[in-house]
Amino acid sequence: MSNTNALSARDRIASLVDENSFVEIGATITKRSTDFNMQEKSVPADGVITGYGLVSGTPAYIYSQDASSLNGSIGEMHAKKIAHVYELAVKTGVPVIGLIDCAGMRLQESTDALAGFGQIYKMKAKASGIVPQISAVFGNCGGGVAVMTAMSDFTFMEAQNGKLFVSSPNTLEGNYTDKLDTASADFQKAASNVDVILEGETEVLNAIRELVSILPENNNDTAGSDECMDDLNRLVPDFAAEAADAALALEDMSDNNFFLELKAGYAKEMVTGFVCFDGMTVGAIANRTAVFDENGKEVEKFDGRLTTAGCEKAADFVKKCDAFNIPVLTLTNVEGYATSVEEETTIATAAAKLTAAFVEADVPKVNLIVGKAYGSAYITMNSKHIGADMVFALPTAQIGMMDANVAAKIMYADDKDVNLNEKASEFAAQSGTEAAAARGYIDSVIEPEAARKQVLYAFEMLFTKSEYPIGKKHGTI
Asked: Which of 29, 148, 205, 286 could staple 246 via S-S, CB 3.0–4.6 A?
């Protein structure tokens, strides 16, 4: 059961929704099972409170599991209540928010509980890509409930009491909780299961409110924040210095320095999250080569290469943005693929998925090349060649096959008399922004301090973009 200091299921809802806006549905529903003396147990609302309300002015359906009622375990009627919420959300086109605090399947109800899980899975899969699904883990979230949570578009986790796991840490071979608590927030920070981890339930609920405020209600809506109070022509003089740490660069570019980073501790070399330009929500994907602390000191370094984890993280985010008509911005600074035996087993497939995600996305797509853009890894990063609508580059950007010195050594490996420096210079001339612009591969070379306004204006012009893709059921990549 959750920590007694945690908010109750009803308190969580009250903290999440706008004041006095929540309407409960199915309040009198409870279990019907009498096996294992269940008729003697009181299970109010069958362990889950369901209903609807306003979250930052946006209508949403909400369910909140009650750990004080049979540990919030999911039985037949508990599942039916959640599935019904999803059914209503799809019909009305509004988000679903699940507040998770659950011991898992209700063992006393056996196959009925299993059927209930299946019903939830089915409704979540049907709702995917139609309405945003948000889950927040406040207590236990194990086994099938972890799978249920992973089917959401965005997952939050409370750092102190949240426990997320498919298999309990003690059941993993050679492991036990004191050795490595794989269910803890500390472990999940570096995993792909959670988008945002915060300490304190109120902080988590406030972050959900912030996310809902910038998301569309459904896949036919457009995303946006409040009216922009920032200067549309604001310069970003530190952009060139920040470009290596894309999280800082994106924050500097965005309206009022808003940046909601997702999966911040996972695949740190690839940054994903939401920014805003003139009140328009934009999904950002960026290569990162360094992490700077609050004093601008480099505390972590990456080699500017696509990794399997980074590609999968980005591809998943691009597909979510495209599903909900959210424009996409990329900051490109990549020189190739990660080189290791382990990566070699997976990187091709992962890069293919990211490439396909960008190609298939028909939302407005803008790419800003801030550093290196080498080889097929550059092509994958939302290049003009695979469908970017507008491509900008900083004057110092390098666009081409590879580093000029390396290229010269490869091309003239058998020629001992050649001047490699001279040949490298010749190759470099083909790798600059001028050569790429002359061929139409980039649309404009911009100064770094103008990055915000140039990107903002591009998205303003692309706002009404409309594409009619070739009819097909789905891709297989």
From this structure: 286
